[in-house]
Write a structure and sequence with these properties.
By secondary structure, this protein is of the alpha/beta class. It is 47% helix and 19% strand. It is built from 19 helices and 18 strands. It has a 16-stranded mixed β-sheet that branches. Strand 14 and strand 15 form a beta hairpin. The longest helix has 31 residues. It is globular, with a radius of gyration of 25 Å.
């Protein structure tokens, strides 16, 4: 139905242009009469389309606030609202296009991934000292996304874009069999060409190279960049290529993941893309503060599994082979769950995990996020945590890379501060970390921001770690970051001028839609 409406709409626009041009340059009565008839027909068809879209919005049974927002826009600004709906409103969550044939036999995959036969006693001994809330979260993530708890892992944490990229490039340089990359943004700048040079060398050595890049996130990257790698024997495929960006809601559903798997032994997961700005070489930001994991062990195999499912989606090639899941004899216990979320998920997996993490905090809740567009459930959970006496601290950027989103973020300041939540703005550079730390028990690192887009529209991937040592490491970094922050005072927010408050409120209005 939606495809038919889109086709009719484009036809109407084209016919309108033709007749209005003819009417302007050929002053014949017959043309004017035909034009008048066409205009009337177009008005009635357009009215029919608007009514049909409103019925579709209602039928989708979405969030009532979001549905009402769309209906109001379509009624009061029909032309602008119609275009907005084509770009942002169509919900592909239930579309077959985004169901990635993830019905692979999990028992078969698990037999490839897990070389240790884990007994229930091993799980019990590992988790016996964890709180009931941790067990509850582990069960939630298994039930909503089949996220298996991986016990045996080694983790290295990087706290800047530069450190992560240097480590990744070194691992790629030392690779022997396969390089799998999946990034929202890979830029054709100095850093991007460094990557290309290393990949071309490895291809010449016979190493397999596969790259999934998001079509919109890597929009400005020249086709020649990918062509050079392809001609050398690599495979580069865009995620959800969108050739009519302003007339398609594909623009709204992006692959926001930042993962890499080298030889099936080392996996990277976090917030750092590939480009100069992430290593502090951009004019806008001299330092890029981010958080990224390098994982070896069972969790690495799960990330490899997720990449191959994404590869199946974009390439239609099934590459599930044992050689991509080499045996790793790791004895150290570090429980990790890898969770994915996107329009292909039956549940909003990461959204639910964030909500449960916030609700489960007993003493402290520390959050780092570059963008904060909150829905009602997360906003309420944060307020309850703050009002309950839990030490809630949130670090955000002082200087934004997206002005409109920054205004929307600041619109939440006053009510969060009123709820005893402490807000800090990072001043050393740009903080892009997506981190949540709960008490001394668990932490989350990945690609998902604390915003509606990450919760329901983008394809995201996070690592949840239930290890006290790893939590301690992230907490130490959080305290260091506080030394480079200015605390936001409620008086300064209250005393903002009326125009500034209006802009923030206006930006926030779009949060139910975007």
């Amino acid at each position: 139905m939606k495809r038919i409406l889109l086709t009719i709409s484009i036809a109407i626009i084209l016919v309108s242009i033709i007749f209005f041009i003819n009417g302007k340059f050929i002053d014949y009565h017959i043309i004017n009469k035909i034009k008048s008839i066409i205009v009337s027909v177009i008005e009635w068809i357009f009215l029919f389309i608007i009514i049909s879209i409103i019925l579709i919005v209602i039928r989708e049974n979405s969030n009532p606030i979001k549905s009402l927002a769309w209906i109001q826009i379509l009624i009061f600004v029909p032309v602008f609202g119609f275009i907005l709906y084509l770009v942002f409103g169509i919900n592909y969550r239930k579309k077959k296009k985004y169901i990635k044939k993830s019905v692979k036999d999990y028992a078969t995959i698990d037999s490839i991934i897990f070389n240790k036969n884990l007994s229930s006693n091993e799980y019990y001994e590992t988790l016996k000292n964890k709180s009931k809330n941790v067990h509850k979260l582990i069960n939630l993530l298994y039930n909503n996304s089949k996220a298996i708890l991986c016990l045996y892992n080694n983790i290295t944490t990087y706290f800047s874009g530069k450190d992560k990229i240097e480590a990744l490039f070194e691992d790629i340089s030392n690779s022997e069999s396969s390089i799998h990359l999946e990034y929202f943004s890979i830029k054709d700048d100095r850093t991007g060409y460094r990557l290309q040079e290393i990949l071309l060398k490895k291809l010449a050595e016979g190493v397999e190279v596969r790259i999934i890049y998001d079509y919109v996130g890597s929009w400005r990257t020249k086709r020649k960049y990918w062509k050079t790698i392809i001609e050398a024997g690599g495979e580069c495929i865009p995620f959800s290529a969108n050739y009519l960006p302003f007339l398609s809601s594909k623009l709204n559903y992006r692959d926001h993941r930042k993962i890499a798997i080298i030889d099936g032994k080392y996996a990277y997961i976090g917030g750092v893309n590939i480009g100069d700005q992430y290593v502090g070489l951009s004019k806008q930001f001299s330092y890029w503060r981010d958080t990224h994991y390098r994982i070896s062990g069972q969790a690495c195999a799960v990330i490899q599994q997720m990449f191959l499912l994404d590869w199946l989606f974009v390439s239609k090639k099934d590459e599930f082979k044992k050689k991509y899941f080499p045996k790793q004899d790791i004895e150290s216990v570090c429980p990790v769950q890898i969770i994915c979320s996107g329009p292909d998920s039956n549940w909003k997996n990461i959204h639910q995990s964030y909500f449960e993490m916030i609700c489960s905090a007993k003493k402290n809740l520390y959050i780092q996020t570059p963008y904060m567009f909150l829905d009602e459930s997360i906003l309420m959970a944060l307020k309850i945590a703050g009002l309950s006496g839990i030490d809630v601290k949130i670090i955000l950027p002082e200087k934004a890379d997206h002005t409109f989103v920054n205004f929307g973020t600041k619109s939440y300041y006053y009510e969060l501060l009123e709820a005893n939540i402490k807000l800090y703005e990072y001043t050393k550079g740009f903080i892009h970390s997506k981190v949540i730390i709960v008490d001394d028990e668990l932490c989350s690192v990945g690609s998902a921001n604390l915003d509606i887009r990450s919760f329901s529209q983008n394809f995201e991937m996070n690592a949840l770690v239930y290890d006290e040592n790893e939590v301690k490491i992230l907490k130490g970094s959080f305290y260091e970051d506080l030394q480079n922050c200015n605390q936001v005072c409620i008086e300064s927010v209250r005393n903002k001028n009326v125009f500034h408050k209006f802009i923030e409120s206006f930006a926030r209005l779009f949060s139910p839609i975007f």
